[in-house]
Design brief:
Layout (H helix, E strand, L loop, with lengths): L1 H13 L34 E14 L2 H7 L12 E13 L3 E12 L2 E11 L2 H11 L3 E3 L2 E5 L3 E7 L6 E9 L4 H10 L4 E5 L2 E5 L6 H7 L4 E11 L7 H5 L1 E16 L5
Helix pairs in contact: 1-2
Amino acid sequence: MKACGAVLATALALGACASAAPGLYDSAPLDDPVLGPCAWTGRITGRFVYQESALIRGYFEPATLGAYRVAVRAPFTMPERPLIRVSVLDFYEMVNGPAYRESEVSVLALHEGQPGWLVLTMPVTDGDSCGGGRAAWGYPKVVRRVTLDRSADRYVGTSYTQGGHAPEFALTLDAGEPDAAARDLLRFVHAFPNLTLRQGSVMKFGGLRQPVEELARAAPGAWAVRLGEARLAYPPERDNLLHRLGVGRPLAGYWSRLRASYSITPR
């Protein structure tokens, strides 16, 4: 990651480096020496169909608007309220496809005036998810080790650098009662989709029909949600994405579990 990381660090500093296809913010090596290559093997027939998964997610202020502006490149534009989103997900039960884990770092951006989460990086533990997600949907996926651990009132997701030894970042959620500002932010962001670029075309995925708390009340058999306080830890190294991007104070966070069959398709 060193050479490619240096290129991306220069891009953040100068705004002068074009992004690599198919992702927008995609200069990290795709493969992992332990987990293997980012490649569709053909062993999966048809689309992935998800059955049960869990995630932790945190929302943060940006600390450096200059770096944020560089990350939000054309055809996207800056939103009125810049936000950074960091997630760790565990797709542990599948109807079709391999179980795998995933992390992501996104920034809020506008496309044609509408907000969405511009995905900057999406490490995954499975090569088919990586290769298929890049080719079909334009997600800037790479193969990396990702873990998600749970104790009574704490959830810790860790995304690792190549080889799986050193953490790229650790996202921790301590369950608890959030303040009114955190609840307002979760209501503000709930419907925003993911945004990716595939061969120059913008693709949109997901977004919730209701804020997470309302989903849990409306469909408790499908959704379980715990709100809390999120925090991030990452090494202050030049090739670390979050260090370059600049992450400010935490604003909101939650853990959720979803049990429902679905496939991922663009809007």
